[in-house]
From TrEMBL:
Signal peptide: none annotated. The lineage of its organism: Bacteria, Pseudomonadati, Pseudomonadota, Alphaproteobacteria, Hyphomicrobiales. It comes from Bosea vestrisii. The keyword Transit peptide does not apply. Coiled coil: none annotated. CDD domains: PRTases_typeI. This is Phosphoribosyltransferase domain-containing protein. The chain crosses the membrane at residues 15-35. The keyword Transmembrane helix applies. It comes from the Bacteria. Keywords: Membrane, Transmembrane, Transmembrane helix.
Length: 271
């Protein structure tokens, strides 16, 4: 029996030594940047999950702490003050004469807010991006209406305000994908790079946050959502600076069109 105990003890010691050796090896490889990104992400994800489990066991409100941490670096401003500030800025780029608006369903309007044009300037795009992140703080902070605040990347229509999307992505510290309304090339298999300009293709089940200057009828956004999901990614929220109400009476506005798709559009002001 003593010999068996000794054998088991030696086996256990060797197992512990092997685990410690592998752990040390993984740590060295990760710190040196040699460890493959997918493996590093898997290790860190499991390490994070174990930490969260332990915190919950000790009674820590992990979700509240996560929400606070995710938005603490963004400007804290009341919804009313943010709306007032944005309305003042939009007046400077408002064209006050009759226009027609829409790509699929064209409707007449008595003015046009050219934020798409104004946001072609990087400084202006940055200014409005700070407004978007202030809105995000309200939505994703403690008590905010967004349930799943985990975001893996930002996506913006290339035919919308790509610089605004880039500025928001930089502030949120997330990769940016630009959506092409038509695929750049044909492919015998589903190829995300045909529909999206990106440095790296997000992993399957990664979560997107759509950002643009505005959305009137939601046609571009609906196509974008379909292609995000076709690539195996998730999306539920769409952030814009302003939301035109020209098509609201006929229920052909963006909010109505996107709602059945499980997408909520969040705007700072409605015009």
């Amino acid at each position: 029996m003593d010999a068996l105990d000794q054998l088991l003890t030696n086996g256990l010691n060797k197992t512990i030594l092997l685990v410690l050796t592998l752990s040390s090896l993984f740590l060295v490889l990760e710190v040196s940047g040699i460890l493959p990104r997918q493996l590093s992400s898997w290790i860190n994800r499991n390490r994070l999950n174990e930490t969260i489990r332990l915190l919950k066991e000790f009674g820590v409100d992990v979700e509240t702490a996560r929400r606070v941490n995710n938005v603490s670096r963004f400007e804290s401003i009341s919804g009313k003050d943010l709306s007032s500030r944005v309305k003042s800025r939009l007046k400077e780029i408002k064209l006050s004469h009759p226009v027609t608006i829409g790509t699929q369903i064209v409707v007449p309007g008595n003015h046009y807010i050219d934020l798409m044009g104004a946001a072609s300037d990087w400084n202006t795009a940055n200014m409005y991006a700070r407004d978007i992140t202030a809105l995000w703080r309200q939505l994703a902070g403690v008590g905010g209406p967004i349930a799943n605040t985990k975001i893996d990347f930002i996506v913006t229509p290339k035919t919308g305000s790509p610089l605004l999307g880039a500025a928001v992505a930089e502030l949120l510290g997330k990769p940016l994908l630009l959506h092409n309304p038509k695929p750049k090339f044909g492919s015998t298999k589903l190829e995300p790079r045909a529909f999206f300009d990106c440095r790296e293709v997000p992993a399957i089940h990664a979560r997107a946050l759509i950002v643009d200057d505005s959305s009137t009828g939601g046609g571009k956004a609906a196509q974008l959502v379909e292609e995000i999901r076709r690539c195996g990614w998730q999306v539920s929220d769409f952030l814009v600076i302003f939301e035109p109400q020209l098509k609201t009476d006929t229920k052909q506005n963006a909010a109505e069109r996107l709602r059945p798709m499980g997408i909520t559009i969040h705007s700072i002001v409605k015009t």
